[in-house]
Amino acid sequence: MQNNPNSTHSQSSMAWFDPEPGSQPKAKAPDTWYFVTNQLNLMYMLAAGMILPPAGFGDKYYEDSLSVMKGWIPVFPEKIPGKMIDMSVRETRSLKPVVVALNLASVKGPCIAAGPGGKTRAAHLPEDRTEAQIGLFLPAPLPTVLIEAICFQSADDKKECEKDAADYTNVPLNAFKRVVRKALFQKSGPDIVMPAGSSGTDNSSGIPATISPNISMDRFLAYGAMLAMLLHCGNMGDDAARACLAAFGDSDSGGENAKVLFGSLEDRIANEMEQGGESASSELFWAVVEEIIHAGEVPGERKAEREVVLALLERSVASLDGKTKEAMGRLADDLRSLNGLGDKSATELLEDHAGPFRRALILFFLRDRCTELLDFFHFMLNEQDYLAACLLFAAREKWIGLPLGLRDSPGLERAVSIRMAAAAHRYLKTGLSPGPAPPQCPPLRELLRPAAGEGGRSGTWSNKQKDAALLVAREMKWGCITTSIRLAKGEYDLRVDGGGVSIHLPGEVKAVETRVDMASFFSSMSTARFVDRKTESRARAILSR
């Protein structure tokens, strides 16, 4: 029997639980398994984009089935142990049980299987998924994209949860199927008796030890917010579009700088970046990002992000020399002033401090929320300044802090959820794969990029791209639309009245052609930076036809 969850599984060397006399275990379990929680934990996990271990909730966790073996997620066939339902609502009377249906077809890797009589052993997905089991324990976290449906005990519970979720700006409950399935709450499954050692205090039971039960999820939530922010900045220009594609894992996005800085995001989050080779400025920037991420990890001991940044800068100045030391010293002084009542305007600060790192920090001290960064415009800021600021703001606010308006781009929730979970399992070295990553979310600018013509020359738009560009230019009121009218030969009657100018002519108009000037369009997109969300959604729908 393999006891190490990170070891390579061999089916021939790993028999299942001994079947009861005269019975044979079935060969395959259904793809759908059930996880038990309560409505308040559910809303927190939907906001986080992942099914979290208890430590991932900070100080907002209400005891549920996750507390049976911390760091692991218990899932069951359709018969759910009554103990799991009862413990998920016993902490306070306002809690209601919720059962989440998960599709585990794409999940691969080590887990723990629970069998009859409290037998618990190491297992591996997908090959060890059989109906003979009472339940499975999977390493946390799991992405919410695995959710098939959210099941309630009654219509009243469902309605009340929907009403409560509407009060939050970051809970995408409406994105998931919601059903009433009273039968799931009948407590029909046998209780799981966890053997000694399952709490992680020792490993005498022969099951894998608890996986980092106290690990914070903040670094992975920050990663999700970084992906979202890079997508929203992707219309600024070609550099921003490449940075977005690189962050989502497109190795063919072009632009070496984008690949180096943004293509390594998941490696950095998973703590698998090769050390060395970076400039002092780059190392300091990523040190700042880490400090911001960690500022709120200890419940009840949250540190102000600006204060930890200032403390790091002031410590770092001593180890620098020359002009770099002088520049960073002046930056620390100005940021300290901004943290109170600064006496310099934004323009004066940006004039005094050049470069993406320093300007991103200035923005970080000038504004609080990601939405405020996206709304902030200054003529001295370029794409690189905003992109660097995106990482700092995302590290502070994290995916769970983003309002739904920054999370509802087509495919974004799905792409981010599974990438956050995958990065967590790489960092924790659980060996679990939550499933293949969905395609990256290209910014609208990239979707409207014409295919290259012969010799690498700029090509022309396809008909879909023309229609989408016309829609965007019209709705955004950009001055890049021209209309050509071809008229037949003849005499025309020009009339001017209170309604404007009209031309009257005999016969038919040969052709009316409305065009969008490509260069002017992309220039307008760079200047505007952000396209109205409804307009962008309609444009993406045209492009996907």
Describe the secondary-structure layout.
Elements: E1 32-38, H1 39-48, E2 50-51, E3 72-75, H2 82-87, E4 97-103, E5 109-114, E6 120-125, E7 135-139, E8 142-143, E9 147-152, H3 155-165, E10 178-180, H4 218-232, H5 238-247, H6 256-262, H7 265-269, H8 280-294, H9 305-317, H10 322-338, H11 346-352, H12 356-366, H13 370-375, H14 383-401, H15 412-428, H16 444-447, H17 463-476, E11 481-486, E12 493-497, E13 500-504, E14 511-516, H18 518-528, H19 533-543
Parallel strand pairs: 9-10
Antiparallel strand pairs: 1-4, 2-8, 3-7, 4-9, 5-6, 5-7, 11-14, 12-13
Helix pairs in contact: 4-14, 4-15, 5-6, 8-9, 8-14, 9-10, 10-12, 12-14, 17-19
Descriptive notes:
Helix content is 38%, strand content 13%. The chain contains 19 helices and 14 strands. The protein is an alpha+beta fold. The strands form five sheets. The protein has a four-stranded mixed sheet with strand order 1-4-9-10. A four-stranded antiparallel sheet has the order 3-7-5-6, with no helix packed on it. The protein has a two-stranded antiparallel sheet with strand order 2-8. Helix 8 packs antiparallel against helix 9 (305-317) and helix 9 (305-317) packs antiparallel against helix 10 (322-338).
